[in-house]
């Protein structure tokens, strides 16, 4: 099945797809927990809580540690103060910069649709020098709705010049939130299998999967089996 023939718009998720940001998010989470006299979490725990945005991250932390639900507001406020510039421990996944360059050179309009808030999203894209490759950036606080609601991804495609309700494009992501969001738009979904997904690949809906960004440009151009 052909996934994308012409230079169609391609929208990317961020955390767990283009960047391995879990170490920075983990460090910020534990600094906040320490500040509020709560026990620390492991990197693996925090990684498994990423994907739904900051509020869901903290709902899961509060649940895991048995903290009072009404502590969320203060914890999120402390977290956001640190999260805005958390770049030191984050890495691009291998091959990302080259793959984005190839796709941009081939004429694909590129965008970001992430549940990460806009300020840390822009900070991390600037940190890695890749902000200018994206013609649109939709963050977790750009709209009232977050993925898996289709609204943010539709907005990204609209900003890239596509029909938001039936975009001739692709979404590239790593998580359950991304798979459900792409299906709701609807738009074909390419899943990066080394991200933060908690569900087996075969239980999610996707048109193609890849574990190496060097393979992405050819996957986009040549198509892939569904
Ligand atoms: O911030 C999150 O929880 C998830 O961000 P993502 O949508 O880029 O994966
Ligand atoms: Mg993600």
TrEMBL record:
<comment type="function">
    <text>Specifically catalyzes the dephosphorylation of 2-phosphoglycolate. Is involved in the dissimilation of the intracellular 2-phosphoglycolate formed during the DNA repair of 3'-phosphoglycolate ends, a major class of DNA lesions induced by oxidative stress.</text>
</comment>
<keyword id="KW-0378">Hydrolase</keyword>
<dbReference type="GO" id="GO:0046295">
    <property type="term" value="P:glycolate biosynthetic process"/>
</dbReference>
<feature type="binding site">
    <location>
        <position position="15"/>
    </location>
    <ligand>
        <name>Mg(2+)</name>
    </ligand>
</feature>
<protein>
    <recommendedName>
        <fullName>Phosphoglycolate phosphatase</fullName>
        <ecNumber>3.1.3.18</ecNumber>
    </recommendedName>
</protein>
<dbReference type="GO" id="GO:0005975">
    <property type="term" value="P:carbohydrate metabolic process"/>
</dbReference>
<dbReference type="GO" id="GO:0008967">
    <property type="term" value="F:phosphoglycolate phosphatase activity"/>
</dbReference>
<keyword id="KW-0119">Carbohydrate metabolism</keyword>
<feature type="active site" description="Nucleophile">
    <location>
        <position position="13"/>
    </location>
</feature>
<dbReference type="InterPro" id="IPR037512">
    <property type="entry name" value="PGPase_prok"/>
</dbReference>
<keyword id="KW-0479">Metal-binding</keyword>
<dbReference type="InterPro" id="IPR023214">
    <property type="entry name" value="HAD_sf"/>
</dbReference>
<dbReference type="GO" id="GO:0006281">
    <property type="term" value="P:DNA repair"/>
</dbReference>
<comment type="pathway">
    <text>Organic acid metabolism; glycolate biosynthesis; glycolate from 2-phosphoglycolate: step 1/1.</text>
</comment>
<dbReference type="InterPro" id="IPR036412">
    <property type="entry name" value="HAD-like_sf"/>
</dbReference>
<dbReference type="GO" id="GO:0046872">
    <property type="term" value="F:metal ion binding"/>
</dbReference>
<comment type="similarity">
    <text>Belongs to the HAD-like hydrolase superfamily. CbbY/CbbZ/Gph/YieH family.</text>
</comment>
<keyword id="KW-0460">Magnesium</keyword>
<dbReference type="InterPro" id="IPR006439">
    <property type="entry name" value="HAD-SF_hydro_IA"/>
</dbReference>
<dbReference type="GO" id="GO:0005829">
    <property type="term" value="C:cytosol"/>
</dbReference>
<dbReference type="InterPro" id="IPR041492">
    <property type="entry name" value="HAD_2"/>
</dbReference>
<dbReference type="InterPro" id="IPR050155">
    <property type="entry name" value="HAD-like_hydrolase_sf"/>
</dbReference>
<feature type="binding site">
    <location>
        <position position="174"/>
    </location>
    <ligand>
        <name>Mg(2+)</name>
    </ligand>
</feature>
<dbReference type="InterPro" id="IPR023198">
    <property type="entry name" value="PGP-like_dom2"/>
</dbReference>
<feature type="binding site">
    <location>
        <position position="13"/>
    </location>
    <ligand>
        <name>Mg(2+)</name>
    </ligand>
</feature>
<dbReference type="Pfam" id="PF13419">
    <property type="entry name" value="HAD_2"/>
</dbReference>
């Amino acid at each position: 099945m052909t996934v994308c023939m012409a230079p169609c718009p391609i929208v990317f998720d961020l955390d767990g797809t283009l960047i391995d940001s879990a170490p920075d998010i983990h460090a910020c989470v534990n600094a906040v927990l320490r500040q509020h006299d709560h026990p620390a979490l492991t990197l693996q725990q925090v990684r498994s809580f990423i994907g739904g945005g900051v509020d869901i991250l903290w709902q899961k932390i509060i649940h895991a540690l048995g903290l009072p639900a009404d502590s969320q507001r203060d914890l999120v406020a402390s977290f956001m103060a640190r999260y805005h510039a958390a770049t030191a421990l984050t890495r691009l996944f291998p091959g990302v910069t080259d793959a984005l360059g190839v796709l941009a050179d081939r004429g694909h309009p590129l965008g970001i649709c992430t549940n990460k808030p806009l300020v840390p999203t822009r900070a991390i894209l600037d940190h890695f020098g890749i902000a200018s490759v994206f013609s649109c950036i939709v963050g977790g606080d750009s709209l009232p709705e977050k993925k898996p609601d289709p609204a943010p991804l539709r907005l990204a495609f609209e900003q890239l010049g596509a029909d938001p309700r039936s975009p001739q494009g692709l979404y590239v992501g790593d998580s359950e939130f991304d798979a459900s969001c792409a299906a709701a738009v609807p738009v074909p979904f390419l899943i990066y299998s080394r991200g933060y997904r908690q569900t087996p690949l075969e239980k999610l809906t996707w048109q193609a999967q890849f574990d190496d960004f060097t393979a992405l440009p050819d996957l986009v151009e040549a198509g892939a089996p569904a």
